[in-house]
Amino acid sequence: MKIDLILKNIGQLVPCSGSDTPLKGAEMSAVDLLKNGAIAVNEGKIVALGDSVALTEKYAAEQIIDCAGKAVIPGFVDSHTHTVFGGDRVHEFEMRIQGASYMEIMSAGGGIVSTMRHTRAATEDELFEAALKRLDQMLALGTTTVEIKTGYGLNTDTELKMLRVIERLDKAHACTLIPTFLGAHTLPPEYKEDPNGYVDLIVDEMIPAVAEWYAQSHFSKDGVPLFVDVFTEDHAFDVAQSERVLLAGQALGMIPTIHSDQFNAFGGTQMAIGLGAISADHLDVSGSDEIAALASSNTIAVPLPAANFNLGHDIAAYPNGRAMIDAGCALALATDLNPGSAPCYSMPLVMAISNRIMRLTPAETLIASTINSAHACGMAQRVGSIEVGKAADLLILKAADWRHLSYFLGGNPVETVIKDGEVI
Ligand SMILES: [Zn+2]
Fold it and tell me: Are 116 and 153 in contact (CB under 8 A)?
């Protein structure tokens, strides 16, 4: 049988299988390994994997890549990003390392509202071009699927503008994208004194408009889900307001997810679990109650340690990823790419931080960055592992031992990215 592509002589083929449900707790601690493996690809999908000699005898291929003993893993899935934004916040970064507090930065016009101003002012083309370059950097570092949130518009027009940009990016860029509506990211200045009025606007106007956009978008035609997200925190949205937003989205077919327990744990995580949220993200201050609730639910815990690293946090202020896995949670990792708290493109860097600070093993961080993060963006039936029928999103590493992903830090461990069967 003639097919498009074979990868042969793979020293360590690491499939990261587990498409039906996310891997939880101790299930994350071991990865299957196929030695001297090969992968057969046709029309962008994986058609077979197995022994290198047997597979190369069985299939004739248009293109053959000799991996020369190197390791091959699935493409990374980055399940939490804010990739579309106007401007940058390098000025704040400099203020912060010179000792300015969050409040001082806010009163100097910084924070999410500063990015909101730039995003409102930017044209659709400007947002598109800037985000396209960011996706190029992520892809070069091995990320082949990316969730992208709105949340820098904070009015109906700009939130819809961001969604149109995400749809254009998905058509133009090799990465597979998943959209999330995060109108409840923070309060826009015009609603500073009227938070419930802003929640009314989200529920009564934005969410119906977003649902209408989604119904016409190619995402809904392709069966890619739409998420509804909220930032549950002091100075953002309380639990009751957050629940209203998530329920309104859920009623129109969106899947709930949440930013919770970043600075204060006051019930957001438990509320989101109650709604069947796909994930709860950040979890920096989650305690044993929150962790136990996550462990006994289907909601995936998503620490975002690049944000802690970027903010210069003490080790004790990082999410307790080790306790989450030990308690039996399903855990996924993401960059949280955004212009303020996490200007980070690199899943390998997130893994390296997680290994060293949260004491996760290389196997746990690999599972958390591939199949579990595919579950966290509702795409586990298509991406996140090397299994027959899935997209051929494959990374040939520079090393023969896949654990070098976690061991070396600061470089790019990926030699070749293959997306939907195409060598990038
Ligand atoms: Zn975020």
Answer: yes
